[in-house]
Amino acid sequence: QVASLAADIQKKVQDHPCYSEEAHHHFARMHVAVAPACNIQCNYCNRKYDCSNESRPGVVSEVLNPAQAIKKTLAVAAAIPQMSVLGIAGPGDALANPARTFEVFSELQKRAPDIKLCLSTNGLMLPQYVEQIAAANVDHVTITINCIDPDVGAQIYPWIFWNHRRIMGREAAEILIAQQQKGLEMLVARGILVKVNSVMIPGINDEHLKEVSRVVRAKGAFLHNVMPLISEAEHGTHFGLTGQRGPTSEELQALQDDCAGEMNMMRHCRQCRADAVGMLGEDRGSDFTMDKVE
Ligand code: CLF
Ligand code: SF4
Predict the structure, then answer these.
(1) Which end of the chain lies in a sparser environment, N or C, as judged by fewer CB atoms within 10 Å?
(2) Ligand 1 centre and the CA of 165: distance in Å?
(3) Residue 173: strand, helix, or coil
(4) How far is the CA of 116 from the centre of ligand 1 (A)?
(5) Measured from the CA of 270, which atom of ligand 1 is nearest?
């Protein structure tokens, strides 16, 4: 049984460029920017740009409706044979736009069943959607988990939108953390591969991320991706404006090394845009804007 589980995981990661270092030399991914809304505020985000859960802030993606997204995906799949994965990663949060996100997934499942489906989320709504994620045949989910301690969280998340109202500060972080951890457990129980993204914010969660790594690994996360905070002032993020710096590459690598004792670390992330197309590190999005696809 252990062997068949290993074979199953192997099958799920072997052509996913983010989950397998080896696969990223041979397979491409694309994102469709169908999810404009978000239900939380991160201090490293500027809503005008892409969700920094997965993507590099500073560039505005062309928001597509589901029909356009499907058309674009089919066009890219026809043009780039290595394209194996379709991800929804913003520009807001995929699960704050559930109707749009699941329409794309279910239509693609019917029309292009060979394309693997991938979802990235801040996790706030995850427990409510695990059933639907499993039903849509989404094999890969990324949760951005920056902390498991609400006192740390209060320095990263000023508010969340929850049960029709805005909740601030520590209480907000507490709810978000609980939802993320519950969502992680539910996905693992379903056999869905979970990658955890963490944004490394020096002086706020850098030391704490080692503990995060231990906890998510114990709960069955498959991969941990520690990404550097990008906080150029011109992006207009809270951290950018308050002078919070990002880590140096040495600091990032040292933390990744520390976490690596605990679990599989992703080290080839390129912090893609919410509308990226192509091999990791390559962005052919401008070849497939809607005016060219339609
Ligand atoms: Fe996209 Fe993310 Fe899926 Fe990959 S990206 S939703 S898991 S298909 Fe990959 Fe890009 Fe890093 Fe993301 S390199 S930002 S980890
Ligand atoms: Fe921005 Fe993403 Fe955070 Fe929402 S989850 S506030 S879009 S970084």
Answers:
(1) N
(2) 31
(3) helix
(4) 12
(5) 13
